[in-house]
Write a structure and sequence with these properties.
CATH topology: Alpha-Beta Plaits
Helix content: 10-25%
Number of domains: 1
CATH architecture: 2-Layer Sandwich
Strand content: 35-45%
Order of helices and strands: EHEEHEEEE
Mean pLDDT: 90
Shape: globular
Low-confidence stretches: none
């Protein structure tokens, strides 16, 4: 299973995501696809994200049981701590310009 969450993105991208995934809330898409299809969907998101931001999370056989990637500016920045992915929350005003 995978989940894609987008904020402040062009309507064209939201429509494109709705072709592949079920939109359960505004900007929240879920589905079950292979790794190859997931990577293709995420490539489309990163190319069409514009000034928005997005995150994708999917099930993996890791200690956490999932993995994730982000794109676009956001105060929540993924960090790696000894192979375990966590999220660092930056103070207000310290938003990276284009975190990928």
């Amino acid at each position: 299973m995978m989940v894609v969450v987008v904020e402040n993105v062009p309507p064209r991208l939201r429509g494109r995501l709705a072709v592949w995934l079920l939109e359960v809330r505004a900007g929240v898409y879920v589905g079950t696809y292979s790794r190859r299809t997931r990577e293709m969907i995420w490539a489309e998101v990163t190319q069409a994200i514009g000034e928005g931001s997005g995150v994708i999370a999917w099930a993996t056989p890791t200690d956490a049981g999932f993995s994730f990637e982000t794109c676009g500016p956001n105060r929540r920045v993924p960090v790696d701590l000894d192979g375990f992915r966590l999220v660092e929350f930056l103070p207000a005003g310290e938003v990276p310009s284009r975190e990928r």
